[in-house]
Amino acid sequence: MTNALITGANKGIGFEIAKELSGRGVTVLIGARDEERGRAAAERLGARHVRLDVTSEDSVKAAAAWIEEEYGTLDILVNNAGVIVPQDDIRPSATPLEVLRATYETNVFGVVAVTNAMMPLLRRAPAARIVNMSSGLGSLTLGSDPSSPYFDLNLMTYNSSKAALNMVTLAYAKELRDTTIKVNAADPGYCATDLNQHTGHRTAAQGAAIAVRLALLPGDGPSGAYMDDEGNIPW
Ligand SMILES: NC(=O)c1ccc[n+]([C@@H]2O[C@H](COP(=O)([O-])OP(=O)(O)OC[C@H]3O[C@@H](n4cnc5c(N)ncnc54)[C@H](OP(=O)(O)O)[C@@H]3O)[C@@H](O)[C@H]2O)c1
């Protein structure tokens, strides 16, 4: 039996990842910070939910303890929970530090907190997979290329949080390179979800596809990669 924890899986891309993995026979654990939203999403899939606010150390610890007690091991961790903290003026020079901190709490520190708490369970699985939901907006190469559509999307808080997440992904992949665990970053593309007031041109289900692929990678698959549906993305 393969099990998977998806953070922020009560809606959007996370829910679609949960749905797809569940359809493929994986025992899915819907991570949700709100009990009711988590339960409702889990009921829709016939899955289980676990209360998990990635910014709360107590919540992360409790979720890890519960998974350990119920399953003893974790095969797949998808660090999907992510935020764009609203800002009236997105210029870097007008960015309040609290907006930057709140963004990093979820998009960067939350990923490290959850990954570290789950690591003993992941190490016990025969070949665990960690997928971090990044974004093409975290690419330094694309962000510095005037011909890239990302060049003018200069949202410092979110973009830099995803660039940091990319390096976090690489760091874990290097630490774990002599194990069977693979750690990769996924870019779902621009998907219509609450995150962007449904302005994306792709569906959440389309965005979920690359995460599902990386969650189910075979033994000869990559680790320390940054990928979308088309293949590798420049860092
Ligand atoms: N949509 C896009 O175009 C796009 C593009 C590139 C990357 N991404 C990334 O894809 C991931 C999913 O985004 P989405 O578009 O599906 O956004 P979404 O619909 O807004 O969903 C975000 C999910 O994260 C959860 N979340 C937020 N803060 C959390 C916390 N502290 N603890 C636990 N869960 C938390 C939300 O829970 P609540 O319901 O409780 O708020 C929700 O379930 C994010 O990492 C995002 O950065 C999205």
From TrEMBL:
<dbReference type="InterPro" id="IPR020904">
    <property type="entry name" value="Sc_DH/Rdtase_CS"/>
</dbReference>
<dbReference type="Pfam" id="PF00106">
    <property type="entry name" value="adh_short"/>
</dbReference>
<dbReference type="InterPro" id="IPR002347">
    <property type="entry name" value="SDR_fam"/>
</dbReference>
<dbReference type="GO" id="GO:0016616">
    <property type="term" value="F:oxidoreductase activity, acting on the CH-OH group of donors, NAD or NADP as acceptor"/>
</dbReference>
<protein>
    <submittedName>
        <fullName>NAD(P)-dependent dehydrogenase (Short-subunit alcohol dehydrogenase family)</fullName>
    </submittedName>
</protein>
<dbReference type="InterPro" id="IPR045313">
    <property type="entry name" value="CBR1-like"/>
</dbReference>
<keyword id="KW-0560">Oxidoreductase</keyword>
<comment type="similarity">
    <text>Belongs to the short-chain dehydrogenases/reductases (SDR) family.</text>
</comment>
<dbReference type="GO" id="GO:0016020">
    <property type="term" value="C:membrane"/>
</dbReference>
<dbReference type="InterPro" id="IPR036291">
    <property type="entry name" value="NAD(P)-bd_dom_sf"/>
</dbReference>
<keyword id="KW-0521">NADP</keyword>
